[in-house]
Write a structure and sequence with these properties.
homodimer, about 350 residues, globular
């Protein structure tokens, strides 16, 4: 979001229940951004510069830019979960900021680990501030996240929810790295990894929103499970976009995941099929140096598709969306109150950018 | 500590008030180690292996070793601050574990940043598990620390105390890195950096112990200031040992800080003096490649000493110890209750290993 969008959360008028998904995401950015800015302003000046650069508020010298900090999927899940419990608009803004910070901390550290040069259409923080600056900036974000989560609701369960999610996504990152070094990865292992790496924090986002909105334990648990299943669907779609996404929309080059020889779910599904496409794909993945050429990348994408990887993962995403919506029903909250969550969930699990 | 020492905290008999400093440190290790082990056992298996290796419990493959996790200075400060308030033995053990984890998280990440090969006489974690493993292991420790601090006492102030200290030491690390790239650093800047990098967490340790023991706000603040001043004294002595320490005791090669051309306080004090020793030292520090040779290292150490750096920093350490003890008096706690803290403080600020 740009600076003009950043105003006091209390002045934000909430959209109507029947608003579209992008309206909800825009609203979540508007509500969360000022809380994030206030928190980040309290950091050490050098940590603040790194974090604000990563969040798209300014360039490497602190001059304002309007790059933004992403789609605000997780903050929207926090805020809409609180809203589903009948909380007034803006409730859960500190938890929304906390979840975004935890997520961004992992992105910052991930870029160091993967040596990824680009993040959200800009040079990754470690390319600008060095490994030391990005590493410490990520640490600052992680500690700040846990501190912010104390602000909104019941302190102990909220901190526990965020910490458990952080430990899970760290586990997921370990597994992700491990998979890249292994010759074979099963579809089940790949799904478990995605549940840890993406599902856990999106589950925590919904659980935190629910707790902030005054949910009972059953509602908090069901909303948490809703977020976790939705996170899986979201990750599966992300994996599809990592191969077939439009570079202009994803901010990554075409076929980026294939180029990096990632064992993302469509690839694992394709490799696990029995046909000659699987064999040829395995051969391409084993080749060294490999997958640098645009023709070979297109060939690899076509093999994954012909081996059924694309269709399989699209189907899984829809199945996880269905699971998510079942959990939402189990909260027994009025359909009108959960409507924005359903709208957002469907969009996230079926999006093409 | 070794596995035989790791037993239930409730079975630990506390030493008498007049016990020596090393007895208190040994007791702190005994009380804290089982809590640390229980917490680390809940981590993702891959995070657990990295963290337990770093803490000296096992080798890279998970086979038990008895390398230990350091002197337990910070846990001892937590436990003895709680004891000073009249808390029963073992009170504050989770906060003690939390502070140790936060500290070790920073060491793990520092070793990646500085490319230090050795930690506590063993290969640093990043040399064993790679940058990715050590980075994620440090993240896991940091999040776990904030989660553990919730266990013992008042949740919000305890979390705030730890988080503020973490943000301060991250700021101190930024400054430390910055200093190494700058031509000139003042004594005041160097002291501020040390207060952030070491004083903040030792202050938080005492504050957490005080809160856990039921301190009022004045007592918690004074104990926090005691820990912060003691932390400065401790860091100054550490800087002296970084040049003149016995390699067998410090676990680092002789003159390690000079070899790394660190602008530690004795060096900054020496460079800031007016004599020809300062000029010659500056010339040695600017030389590239420099300070690889044992003779040159000895020459540099001698220059720092002759320029008054060693004496100046020893004097500062004693001054900070005096400040620390003044803060301890200001708590108005009975002298018999604060005696172990005074014993430990004097030892830490005057130690030669």
């Amino acid at each position: 979001m740009n600076a003009a969008e950043a105003t006091d959360t209390s002045t934000q008028t909430a959209p109507a229940d029947d608003a579209g998904p992008e309206t909800w995401l825009h609203h979540a950015r508007k509500v969360t951004d000022p809380v994030l800015r206030e928190a980040v302003d309290c950091l050490h000046p050098q940590a603040r510069i790194v974090v604000g650069y990563h969040l798209g508020w300014w360039d490497a010298h602190g001059r304002p830019v309007t790059a933004g900090w992403g789609k605000a999927v997780r903050p929207a899940l926090v805020l809409l979960s609180a809203r589903a419990l009948g909380a007034r608009s803006g409730t859960g803004a500190h938890c929304a900021a906390a979840v975004q910070l935890a997520h961004d901390s992992s992105l910052l550290h991930d870029d160091i680990i993967d040596r990824d040069d680009t993040r959200r259409h800009r040079p990754a923080a470690w390319r600008v501030f060095g490994v030391a600056g990005a590493l410490l900036g990520g640490d600052a974000m992680l500690a700040l996240a846990v501190s912010l989560v104390q602000h909104d609701g019941p302190s102990r369960p909220a901190t526990a929810a965020l910490n458990e999610a952080v430990q899970e996504f760290i586990g997921g990152q370990f597994e992700d790295i491990d998979f890249e070094e292994r010759a074979e990865v099963s579809l089940a292992e790949c799904t478990t990894m995605a549940a840890r790496k993406t599902g856990a924090l999106m589950g925590a986002a919904c659980r935190l929103g629910a707790l902030t909105g005054g949910a009972d334990e059953v509602q908090a648990a069901e909303l948490g499970s809703f977020g976790r299943s939705l996170g899986l669907a979201f990750q599966h779609v992300d994996d599809l976009l990592g191969i077939w996404g439009d570079p202009g929309a994803t901010g990554k080059p075409a076929g980026a995941d294939l180029h990096a020889r990632k064992k993302s779910l469509p690839v694992v599904a394709a490799l696990g099929s029995d046909g000659r496409e699987a064999a040829e794909l395995a051969e391409l993945y084993a080749r060294d140096p490999a997958l640098d050429d645009a023709d070979i990348l297109r060939r690899a994408a076509s093999l994954v598709e012909r081996a059924g990887g694309r269709q399989r993962v699209g189907g899984l995403a829809r199945r996880h969306l269905t699971e998510a919506l079942d959990h939402l029903d189990a909260t027994r909250l009025p359909a009108s109150d959960t409507r924005p969550l359903r709208t957002l969930a469907a969009w996230l699990a079926l999006r093409d950018h």
